[in-house]
Amino acid sequence: MAAFFASGRIIDLVLAIVVVETLCLVAWRLRTGSGPPVAALAVNLLSGAALMLALRAALVQAGWVWVAVPLCISFVVHLGDLALRWERATPEPR
Fold this sequence. Notes:
mainly alpha
């Protein structure tokens, strides 16, 4: 089990699960019209996926750039997620 984590394969498994989760949620949204909006879902999951890629790079002891780039991508996408949430949370003027 230690080798599974040290090799970064655990992150590959988690990312595969996230892809399946995303496909299921998008299919549900298209079929029923309910569930999270696709744009909100995409930025949320992309931010998390970038964090997982940074973790994978750290686990396999990749160079610092391979850790920093996904962290920066995650931050930028996270800001997009916040912007979408902020927009939905802003009350309508009366």
